[in-house]
Amino acid sequence: MIEIERKFRVTHLDCLQFAQRSSRISQGYLSTDPARTVRVRTKDDKGFLTIKGSSSSDGSSRYEWEKEIPLDDALELLKLCLPEPIYKVRHLIPAGKHTYEIDVFEGANAGLVIAEIELERADEPFERPDWLGEEVTGDARFYNAFIAENPFNTW
Amino acid sequence: MIEIERKFRVTHLDCLQFAQRSSRISQGYLSTDPARTVRVRTKDDKGFLTIKGSSSSDGSSRYEWEKEIPLDDALELLKLCLPEPIYKVRHLIPAGKHTYEIDVFEGANAGLVIAEIELERADEPFERPDWLGEEVTGDARFYNAFIAENPFNTW
């Protein structure tokens, strides 16, 4: 499946009062190669394995394959991952007919807050709430696979 | 799950007359890092995703996680893999209470023939038929992940 996503920094955290749902995420990488990223994630009490291919030239679309796996398997596989998983809390905030996913990073990435919106077409219009900051779609520094090896507190 | 395996070169191919079953395998790698290898495989009409951790110091045991996935997913994921999948035919040959898997490589690895036997304990005795050659357990050159990047015809 091809995902079309746009990504932004978040300017004020007061947006979180509108969160409909929040989940705790831990994730690590078996490969951080942008052409074949392999991610292990726990999200609350579930496990997932996700493989992503190269981004399109504008950075907005990317092949993505995801499979739910048992939580215990994900916890075992996290031990194989590159050092220091990423910890974050993901909040879902509705905006018109879309939903923003706001990732509030913790630990070595505390201070980093990213909003993502998934679109059906690259040119589909969407609401831009006033807490939405600079667009970083396609900027490799904001790939979680990059952040896993280069935490925000080293930027 | 931890796998205990010993691996050998094969001296004569006449052992193949004893094959009980043979399967055609294509496989590629999303990560060839020996501490976190990620393999995509098609085996006849099935797909598999396999993740392996580091080997034990003697090379005979290794954490392995495997999941069957739809064949079409495996074919899509093979396109993301590092260049040139490995092609081989695997023959199963019984020997006492064990079964040898004999991999006859093709393409850039033609000429390479490897036998593997899975054991329950590292010191478990097993039959050594006369076609069994030099032991290569733990020799990283005979990891398929190494062969994928360094085909036998370049050795």
TrEMBL record, chains A, B:
The CYTH domain extends over: 1-149
Q: Give a single Pfam family match.
A: CYTH
Q: Which domain of life is it from?
A: Bacteria
Cross-referenced PROSITE patterns: CYTH
**Active site (record annotation):** 29
Name this polypeptide is given: Adenylate cyclase
Give the species.
Answer: Flavobacterium aurantiibacter
